[in-house]
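Hi F.,

I've been meaning to write this up properly since the lab meeting, where we talked about keeping a consistent format for the predictions we share between groups. The idea is simple: the sequence comes first, exactly as it goes in, then the C-alpha cells exactly as they come out, then a line or two of notes. No screenshots and no reformatting. I'm using this chain as the first example so we have something concrete to point to.
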Amino acid sequence: MTDEQMERVRKLHITEKGFAVVLKAGELARAQSFVKMETVARRIHEVLRKHDPRAELNTLLWDFEAQMFDYVVRRPIGSEHDPEATYRIPPELVDELVMGQYGAEEKIASVVVKNLKPLAE
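Output, unedited:
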C-alpha cells in the first residue's frame, strides 16, 4: 500500500485487509459500471443506425444528481436537425437491460425511438 493509503487506514481505524477489501469492491463496481454503460451504448447505437442512419451516439453518461442516464446524439452539420441533442433513459430500464430481463432491449429501443420522433416531424 502507498503511504497515503496507510495514512487513510490509520485515520479510519480499519485494518489493512479491510481497506484492501474496500478498494477491491470499488474496482469491481467501476468495472460493472463500464459494462453497464457499454451495453446501453451498444443498444442506443443499434437503434440510431436503424432509425436515423446519419446520427451517431456521441456520449453516454450517468447523471448522479438526476439519477438518469443521458445520451448525446450528434448529426452532420447541415442536416435539418440540431447537430447535437441530449436525451434521457430512466435508470430502471438500464438496470433491466444489464440484468438481462426479457424485453429490456425493446424497452430501451422504444425510448430512443420516442426521443427521435420529434426530429422526424
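Notes:
The mean pLDDT is 81.
The first strand starts at residue 56 and ends at 63.

If this format works for you, I'll send the rest the same way.

G.
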